[in-house]
Design brief:
Layout (H helix, E strand, L loop, with lengths): L3 E5 L2 H4 L6 E5 L4 H14 L7 E6 L5 E5 H16 L9 E5 L4 H13 L2 E5 L5 H11 L3 E5 H10 L8 E5 L8 E2 H5 L1
Parallel strand pairs: 5-6, 5-7, 7-8, 8-9
Antiparallel strand pairs: 1-2, 3-4
Helix pairs in contact: 2-3, 3-4, 5-6
Enzyme class: ligase
Keywords: ATP-binding, Fatty acid metabolism, Ligase, Lipid metabolism, Nucleotide-binding
EC number: 6.2.1.2
């Protein structure tokens, strides 16, 4: 049996939250307790459908996901992390991605799988990446092509690092392909 705590919402916030207060489970998980809740609200007709994520690239490319799509994609991401990547609850995952939709999928996927999500900026140097991987004992890193070379340079000095997951349109030796695994 899970203990719950009541969260009281300030009057100004009440306009956006029709229920006024929400029971918060003792083992709160944003991906499950918020995302999945909003999906249920939309399916039940208690909330108007709308985009959960709307991303536009610098080239004008758009990605628009509703809560149901984001739920499904984040569940598939959690399965990739726990399955192909072999990660287990409590494992640390370094994430070095620019502002792309996959950042949100990995964030929510980590939450769903019980993984410790460690975001990092794409401006990190190889030395920065090495420090974070060693101190955290990260078991995996999710990165994009521009950061992959720096990761490959420091990976031999990171004995806990078992999985490298690439978010890119190109493949790379020694890396799993996120987009292929997500399909």
């Amino acid at each position: 049996q899970m203990a719950c705590h009541t969260v009281h919402i300030h009057t100004k916030q009440r306009a956006s939250l029709p229920w006024g207060h929400q029971e918060v489970p003792a083992r709160f998980n944003f991906a499950i307790d918020v995302m999945d809740y909003w999906v249920g609200m939309e399916k039940a007709g208690r909330r108007a459908p709308g985009p959960a994520l709307w991303w536009v690239s610098s080239h004008g490319e758009e990605v628009r996901w509703d809560f149901g799509q984001l739920q499904e994609l984040s569940q598939r991401t959690a399965n990739v992390l726990a399955g192909a990547c072999g990660l287990q609850r409590g494992d640390h995952v370094a994430v070095v991605l620019p502002r792309v939709p996959e950042w949100w999928l990995v964030t929510l996927g980590c939450m769903r799988a019980g993984l410790v999500f460690m975001p990092g900026t794409i401006q990190m140097t190889a030395r920065d990446i090495l420090y974070r991987l060693q101190v955290s004992r990260a078991r995996a890193i999710v990165a994009e092509e521009d950061v992959a070379q720096a990761v490959d340079t420091v990976a031999p000095d990171c004995p806990s690092l078992k999985t490298k997951l690439l978010v890119s349109t190109k493949g790379r030796d020694g890396w799993l392909d996120f987009k292929t695994l997500l399909q």
